[in-house]
Amino acid sequence: MKPIWIEGVSLNENPTNILIENKHIAGIGLDVPMPAGAIRIAGKDKAVFPTFANMHTHAAMNLFRGYANDLPLMTWLNDWIWPKEKNLDDDTVYWGTRLACTEMIKSGTTAYSDMYFHIPAAAKAASELGIRSTLGINAFGDAEELTEKYIESILAMLEPLSELVSIAIAPHAVYTVSEKGLRRCAKLSRKYGLLYHIHMSETESEVVNCVKEHGCRPYELLERLGVMEMTEGHFSGAHSLYVDENEIAIIGRYRATVTHNPCSNLKLGSGHYFHYVELRDAGANVTLGTDGCSSSNNLDMIEAAKIMSYLQKGIRRDPTVLAAEELLDVATSNGFKTLGIDAGKIAVGKSADLMLVDLNNLAFVPNNNTLANLLYAAHGDAVDTVVCNGHILMQQRHISSEAETIAEARRATARLMR
Amino acid sequence: MKPIWIEGVSLNENPTNILIENKHIAGIGLDVPMPAGAIRIAGKDKAVFPTFANMHTHAAMNLFRGYANDLPLMTWLNDWIWPKEKNLDDDTVYWGTRLACTEMIKSGTTAYSDMYFHIPAAAKAASELGIRSTLGINAFGDAEELTEKYIESILAMLEPLSELVSIAIAPHAVYTVSEKGLRRCAKLSRKYGLLYHIHMSETESEVVNCVKEHGCRPYELLERLGVMEMTEGHFSGAHSLYVDENEIAIIGRYRATVTHNPCSNLKLGSGHYFHYVELRDAGANVTLGTDGCSSSNNLDMIEAAKIMSYLQKGIRRDPTVLAAEELLDVATSNGFKTLGIDAGKIAVGKSADLMLVDLNNLAFVPNNNTLANLLYAAHGDAVDTVVCNGHILMQQRHISSEAETIAEARRATARLMR
């Protein structure tokens, strides 16, 4: 594995060289020389930033992009999404995931936390693209299909693939998984040290129904079942839009991760008020996601970050909330932390997950503040170069497999929609 | 002026040819042949849409992009924006406007309604870029500088420039212009048939102060002063975020235009609840704007449209609100209507203001629904070709003056920030 030497790139508004060796950032400074045999990347007119961690998505659903919009939730699911999901197979999931990974790389994401079906096909696609993926194995009901034997077989299947692909235990939600199933998943999460990735309180009606059925709210249920304790350090609650004061305290007490998906919550009409400040102050690890492309319609983490920050400022009538530096952490290091990866900062010793953005992109003209321009003015197309775990995944916006992925994803979509 | 013939482009999901002659769309259909001497544009792997009308901006403020963020409103104005605005001159406004026009063209906008200073410099920049501009002459206090003689001198100055550049009367707001000034501006608007472009009810405190000072809310004040009647057909109220039931009725009664600027309202912490449905149902002409780049940070109308629609769905918990077809009208034809331009639809006889988007951009892969992909998945970078009033302003994302504009805008910014 050759070292990478980035020459004269802008870091925090100052030029520097950056050396990447053995998958890590090994040197930062204008005096860091190019080692013999290194790959040289010109950093002129570019700025370096950490890459994003997309903490909640359903990657293969990229094939559903634009398929059904502006519909009531149950119409959308019953009449549009579910009938077509019956056509899913290894081939469609493989190409859908390849398309999603391509889109993520092109917009600066090098890690994602997924939840879908046909795990081996998704793992193959992600590992080929060189991106970090944590593939949640969806469980429903009593989750009886999630046996230790099954999990060990999946782990064995991943072994020869990229070290960057791992799995998570993903009970779908408290309204689709039984108490027994929720606990079963938590035990497996603890036994194998795997992330417990679950949809939590995305809509208000889920919470109302939980109270009816279980006599308490969703996070209260998980605490009562011992799930929060068993999964401490491995819990990731997607959405968590409708949480009350007591639930915020529970989330904070277990230092749990919650993932806000602002574009999805808005577009599906789920709601707009995410308790960012309260969750952060209680001790939650707040991260950011796009959700799948059938909910909102792209995987651009810059857009998701911008909308998250703008929404917090707007609903609280306070422009100082979730300022750019903090927003960058939410979209990068907070997510990597949940995934157990020491990335999300441009600093010596960190994993080499970084991107170069093009300062001649109009979003950076003029460049009064590079970070503000990245998060508030740019979109994913400003990303020029992406490095993940010390490997170059994209340079000058070129990914060698892109044309094949586009052609095959179109073909797979035609099969899915037949 | 040569005809333009676009071959085999996707329109409403079907391939067609489009002929542009004498600034208008002259033919649509696969049987429309290429006239001798026409400019031929290949439409393969492209879809055609109307271009956007950005109905509220301060174009030259592009030089402030990223300059001050995440600050309380009055700190932002007093300590950051206003001290630097004192450095504005013809040169900075000229290059700031050129930069803004370049950014607008690159993201599919061919008309904008502006409000700023140094009108002749802005007019020169906009006319050179070939974009439609309506330049609001800002007025404050009693607006006594706005004499008939002055307006006629500006109109005479515009005469030799592009036919696409015009002016508007732009009293700044009810809290910075006196009752006398507001009326004076309305009379001039009526006399010269010019748009009356004013900031209205952007923040709640403006409304509270208006009630204190005038005994009524801002739109009630304008009605009482006779402004709404005098400007009927020419009124454009930017923001209009804080309007009550009676004001919505007033706006509807005069068929007035209101411009929502969702990104700006959110980022500045002004608020999030725009009364779209109520205004539309009352008869208002609702249009869309980005505001200037110092408020939110880019001029991308696709992003503004997406956020407007997502926000309406989210705050009303109804995903069916402001569906894609209606959203496109808000961002295109509704704005053109206010500007007196018969554009915003791809139809024979309409002004030739249209764009081609690149269907190989990942936002359109797969292409289950081209319009949904444009508004919900894409960003401005998907725009490949832009035609305004029958002239090609951009092809394959190339604008010949772009490199010079970037270099000079950087130089002008350095002077502004000195």
Keywords for this entry:
homodimer, 418 residues, alpha/beta, Urease, subunit C, domain 1, TIM Barrel, eight-stranded parallel sheet, four-stranded mixed sheet, 39% helix, globular
What number is the mean pLDDT of chain A? 97
- Main structural class of chain A: alpha/beta
CATH superfamily of the largest domain in chain A: Metal-dependent hydrolases
Number of domains in the coordinates of chain A?
A: 2
Helix amount of chain A: 25-40%
Largest sheet of chain A: 8 strands, parallel
Might you state the CATH topology name of the largest domain in chain A? TIM Barrel
Q: What CATH architecture of the largest domain in chain A would you give?
A: Alpha-Beta Barrel
Strand order of the largest sheet of chain A: 6-7-8-9-10-11-12-13
Estimate the strand proportion of chain A. Answer: 15-25%
The CATH top-level class label of the largest domain in chain A: Alpha Beta
What's the number of extended β-strand segments of chain A? 16
The N- and C-terminal alpha carbons of chain A lie at a distance of 44 Å
Describe how the helices and strands are arranged.
The structure is a homodimer of 418-residue chains.
Chain A (H helix, E strand, L loop, with lengths): L3 E8 L2 E8 L2 E5 L10 E4 L3 E5 L1 E6 L15 H13 L4 H17 L2 E8 L2 H11 L2 E8 L8 H11 L6 E7 L7 H14 L2 E6 L3 H11 L3 H7 L2 H4 L4 E5 L5 H9 L3 E4 L1 H6 L8 H7 L2 E4 L12 H16 L7 H8 L1 H6 L15 E5 L11 H8 L5 E6 L2 E4 L7 H15 L2
Parallel strand pairs in A: 1-4, 6-7, 7-8, 8-9, 9-10, 10-11, 11-12, 12-13
Antiparallel strand pairs in A: 1-2, 2-3, 5-14, 14-15, 15-16
